[in-house]
Automatic annotation (TrEMBL):
Keywords attached to this entry: CBS domain, Isomerase, Repeat
Protein name, entry field: KpsF/GutQ family sugar-phosphate isomerase
GO molecular function, one term: isomerase activity
NCBIfam families documented for this protein: kpsF
Classification lineage: Bacteria, Pseudomonadati, Campylobacterota, Epsilonproteobacteria, Campylobacterales
A family per Pfam: SIS
Domain called CBS: residue spans: 201-259, 267-322
Entry keyword annotation includes Isomerase: yes
Length: 322
């Protein structure tokens, strides 16, 4: 038994069904889009078994791409959850046969609400097909399952049709990257578009020393600060230099090195800093990477240090540069 060929045949069967379904899209698809766009309430998805699982995924996709939506299980609907439906909603029901018992039982009650019903079924003459205001064909020639029993090709097609509806709705609504990120603030895109310097910078227990501090005391401050760096300010607390552990190692190689010398003698002068705390963290990471530094001091307009942004904090927060 060649399992690779069996797997490849599964791909081919399902891909062929998708191509054929794409070719038969018609005005009904456009009518479904119009109904959903005109919905003042929510788009409610319902279905049982594998159709229900696909429906739950579709509801999640719609909800995250600008179409307010949730999944309603037909059985729960018969036992009180019909109250979740309002007159401003639209229902999208899924059943390959169009005769799923749990689903067909709620259809007469759905019609009492006088709300639009979009039916995804493989049989237009079925109960679901008859009740539907808009019929979307999810029929397939064969399931990939060798027994023709387990929903395989049909569920793939149904999910793809749901994605097609969601993508078309996004285009119609002008749904942009920023809109998607606002629904996914915890995702990588949300972090990239919304997390700012002020959200991640450290503002307490900063290793700040005066320009009159000896190197010996600077090393103590560096150890206590746990940033591998000390920030040096002048008599007016203005940021003027930075001493890193790299600067310290290089200082050790210099003739006449002494721990009693002032730390600023071995520090990097005119270091990089930033004042705009509203800058996106992803853009700050670019500054750090391009400057080949690990720490970006943040100052106010007077040049006084108000915080620091360390590359490790950015990485740990999942921030990536553009």
């Amino acid at each position: 038994m060649d399992l690779i060929k069996i797997a490849q045949e599964t791909f081919h069967i399902e891909a062929d069904a998708l191509y054929k379904a794409a070719e038969r899209l018609d005005q009904n698809f456009l009518d479904a889009i119009s109904l959903i766009l005109g919905t003042k309430g929510k788009l409610i998805i319902t279905g049982v078994g594998k159709s229900g699982l696909v429906g739950a995924k579709m509801a999640a996709t719609f909800a995250s791409t600008g179409t307010s939506s949730f999944f309603l299980h037909p059985t729960e609907a018969l036992h009180g959850d019909l109250g979740m439906i309002s007159k401003n909603d639209t229902l999208l029901a899924i059943s390959s046969s169009g005769e799923s018992e749990e689903l067909t039982k709620i259809l007469p009650h759905i019609k009492r609400f006088d709300i639009p019903l979009i039916g995804l079924t493989g049989n237009k003459e079925s109960s679901l097909g008859s009740y539907a205001d808009v019929f979307l064909d999810i029929s397939v020639e064969k399931e990939a399952c060798p027994l023709g029993a387990a929903p395989t090709t049909s569920t793939t097609l149904t999910m793809a049709l749901g994605d097609a509806l969601a993508v078309a709705l996004m285009e119609q609504r002008g749904f942009k990257q920023e809109d998607f990120a606002s629904f996914h603030p915890g995702g990588s895109l949300g972090r990239k578009l919304f997390v700012k310097i002020k959200d991640l910078m450290r503002t307490t227990d900063l290793p700040i020393i005066k320009d009159t501090t000896t190197l010996k005391d600077a090393i103590v401050a560096m150890s206590e600060g746990k940033l591998g760096t000390v920030l040096i300010v002048d008599a007016d607390d203005k940021f003027i230099a930075i001493l890193s552990d790299g600067d310290l190692r290089r200082a050790l190689m210099k003739e006449g090195f002494s721990l009693d010398h002032l730390a600023i003698e071995y520090a990097s002068q005119n270091p990089k800093s930033y004042t705009n705390t509203e800058l996106l963290a992803s853009e700050a990471l670019e500054i750090i990477e391009n400057g080949r530094i690990q720490l970006l001091p943040i100052t106010n307009d007077a040049g006084k240090i108000i915080g620091v942004l360390h590359i490790h904090d950015l990485v740990n927060a999942g921030i990536k540069s553009k």
